[in-house]
Design goal:
Length: 136
């Protein structure tokens, strides 16, 4: 009995197409993960200020838009449930800072009410986000 595959001395497997596919998958996933953070951002017209702000990517972000809607980490939230949800987020990592992004046109009283809700939720450090002053 003869086996035809035994007659071949150098059987090789070409890895080039496999490497190309793996490289394209890697490239695809790297690019799509960079756009994930952009989708979670809420459009807020921040007031300008001359002091430094906290890094928003590693903190809890509470946003108040011009029409007084409240977002927690880019997701719409009922202001009555803000205290509970902030408490849950702070239990995950207690050293996080809560960054409050309030639109320029939001009334001061609304910002103070949201800050009170954040304090009730256990937020000890609240930073107010601003945009840098344009130098002329």
């Amino acid at each position: 009995m003869k086996f035809p595959h035994l007659n071949k001395k150098n059987a090789s497997f070409d890895l080039t197409p496999l490497i190309d596919v793996v490289f394209l998958l890697l490239l695809f996933f790297m690019l799509t993960t960079t756009f994930v953070n952009l989708e979670n951002r809420v459009k807020v017209n921040l007031p300008s200020g001359d002091f430094a702000a906290a890094e928003p990517s590693e903190n809890i972000i509470v946003s108040i838009t011009e029409n007084n809607t409240v977002y927690l980490n880019g997701k719409l939230i009922d202001p009555l449930k803000l205290t509970e949800n902030v408490a849950v987020e702070l239990k995950k990592a207690s050293n996080k800072i809560v960054v409050l992004e309030a639109d320029t046109n939001v009334l001061h009283g609304k910002v103070i009410r949201v800050m009170d809700l954040l304090k009730q939720g256990g937020a000890e450090k609240i930073a107010i986000a601003t945009q840098p002053v344009e130098k002329k």
